[in-house]
Amino acid sequence: MALLLITTYAFSTDLVLGVVPQQSPLKLSKKWLIVTNYLKEQTGINVVFKTERSIPNFEKELYNGKYDIAYMNPYHFVVANKEASFTAFIRAQKNIQGIVLSKEKKVDFSKENLKGKVFLFPAPNAFAATLLPKYEFKNKFDFDIDKEAKVLYVNSHDSVYKGISRDIGYIGGGINRTYNNFKNNTDKNKLNIVYKTAKYPSHPIAYHPRVKKEDIQKLQNVFLNMPKEIKSILSIKEFIKTNTSEYDVIRNLNVKK
């Protein structure tokens, strides 16, 4: 059943919504299928949920323009805008912030302590969970995680949290929303947030140029007026309008240098 949800194919009149797999495809499908059903009820547009088994696979599909609309991290959007002319139109009002977790209650961020330690991240281009911690550790603590530590990419935020709890890694990156949604208390009770990054515009939902502007206007209005009980499924309190220029701050940050 899960496989069918992951690989749903669309008819020519459908709009395929790609969702970055911060959690397992099964967990995402349970949430986003409720959202896409609501979008269809309100607009008459058949929005079809699709995700991938890993964030790198999602990136490949996204940058090749395989989705009509997509929910992605801010760095993904900068690349998708350049590679496939995606345009941002809606996002969560709350800005995104990366968190760094450890089993220790307080971590010494000196080179002496961090050198050679194992860092867990969901994927190389996860913006707040990977790129921001790497960027800020380099600039604030003069510690280059990629060169001076051992990095393991474990496919999802939940896998980071489990891995730190189970001593697979010393430090891991995530975001508040997925951490708050992490329900495994046996693992969660062992974790501590030891660092928070700066805040930036949150994950946008963006559309490919082939999508009709009138369809995007309909979808934008529905997101803006979405009932609280639907938004709460995504752990989002409020949606707001956005545009491509709002993400210039991400482009100028140059987190990949």
TrEMBL record:
SUPFAM superfamilies on file: Periplasmic binding protein-like II
Pfam families: Phosphonate-bd
Recorded superkingdom: Bacteria
Name under which the protein is recorded: PhnD/SsuA/transferrin family substrate-binding protein
